[in-house]
Amino acid sequence: MHNNNLVSETPNSFKTRLCLQIKDEFLLTRALTHRSFLNENKGALEDNERLEFLGDAVLDFLVAEWLYHNFPEKPEGYLTKIRAALVQTEQLANFAKKIELGNALRLGRGEIIAGGRERTAILCDAFEALIAALYLDSGINAVKTILDPLLKDYFINNAINQIDEDPKSALQEWAQSQGYSSPTYELISESGPDHAKHFVMCVTLNGEKWGEGSGSSKQSAEKEAASLVLRKLKLME
User: Fold this and answer.
1) Distance (Å, rounded) from C-alpha 223 to C-alpha 165?
2) Domain chopping of the chain, boundaries
C-alpha cells in the first residue's frame, strides 16, 4: 500500500499489524482522524487534536524516563539534549513513518492528493495522538510496547553521532549541569602558510585548562579540544 493512495489502511488492520494494546476502536479511529477528514465527512465526530495535546505530555515523560533508566551515567545536560532531539516534530514524524502510520490516517481527499500522508506536521500530530489513545485505553505499558523499540532503534542509528557532530554544545550543556560557567577557548599557537594554517586551541573549564585540540581552523581545533574533554568525562566514545 502506498502512502499517497486514496485508499487507507483501516484502524482495525493498523491495530492488528502493530499488535497495538488498545480495546477502544473508536478511540483509535479518533487518533487517526485529521481535521481535513471532518471537513469532508459531516458524520465524523472528532479529530485527533485533543489527543495530540495529551500525547505530547505523555511522550515528554516517557522519553525522559527511558533515558533516565538507559543512561544511568549520563549527566542532566546530555539527557536534556537527547530528549529534545527525540520529541521534536521531525523525529516524531520519523517514528510515524517507521510504523507506516501515514497509510492509516483518515484524511480529506484534498489533503491526500496534496501528499498529506507524508507531511511532517500531520505525521507528528498523529503519532502524538496515537500515544495518547494507547495511554488512555491501556496505560503506560501499552505505550512502552510501541515506543521503546523506536527509541532503541534511534540510538543505534543516531544519538551518538549527534554528540560527535556537536561536541562544543555537548560540553557546554554538561558544564551548565554541573553549575560551571561556559567553557572558554584560547588560541595557543598558529602556524603554517595562509593556504594551510594549523591552529592549536585550549579549552578552559571552571577556571582550569582541560585539554587542547588542533585543526586547520580555530573552529575545528575547538571542536577537537571539546571532544577530548568529553572523552575524559566518558560522555563520548
Assistant:
1) 9
2) 11-165, 168-232
Q: Tell me the average pLDDT across 190-208.
A: 89
> Is 128 a known active-site residue?
yes
Architecture of 11-165 per CATH? Orthogonal Bundle (1.10)
Give the pLDDT confidence of 45-69 residue by residue, as tens digits.
Answer: 799 999 999 999 999 999 999 999 9
Higher pLDDT, 210 or 71: 210
The residue from 49, 56, 100, 166 that is catalytic is 56
Candidates 9, 47, 128, 137; catalytic one: 128
Report the C-alpha gap between 221 and 115 in whole angstroms: 44
Do 11-165 and 168-232 show the same overall fold? no
Rounded to 5°, angle at Cα 209 from 204 and 210: 90
- The architecture (CATH level 2) of 168-232 comes to 2-Layer Sandwich (3.30)
d(CA 41, CA 109): 10
Model pTM? 0.67
Active site residue 25: no
What's the half-sphere exposure (Cβ side, CA atoms, 13 Å) at 67?
23
Whether the per-residue pLDDT at 26 is higher than 50: the answer is yes
